[in-house]
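Standup notes, protein team

Yesterday: finished cleaning the Paenibacillus chondroitinus set.
Today: Rhodanese-like domain-containing protein structure.
Blockers: none.

Input for Rhodanese-like domain-containing protein:
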Amino acid sequence: MDYNLLINIAAVIFVVWFVYSRFAGVKGLKQLTSAQFQDELKGNSNKILIDVREPGEVKHGYIAGAKNIPLSQLKQRVSEIPADKTVYLYCRSGMRSKQAARILQKKGFRELAHLQGGIMSWKGKIAK
């Protein structure tokens, strides 16, 4: 048996799994455009808006009303998010907010939405 071949196959499988886990959709996560995100935030009084970027990124601007819980701290700070509210998530590009949605789903959250393209796609006002 050629061990190099086995190692190469294992490496390819790992890379495919890694890429899939980062880019695959999250079942049950509402993916909203900037306009849809704005409409939902205005129309839903039973909500919480979470910015999962790091504090240094938030200093450059954020969506008004957002609570900053960085993805790196989310597992430890889940108790700060009311389970009975719709959770709206955003980050810089949409990747971390998807990861945050996966974490929250595992913790039992069901009403989850995120801003596709992150704050870079946001057409609304930015607070500083």
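Follow-up from PR in the comments: The chain has five helices and five strands.
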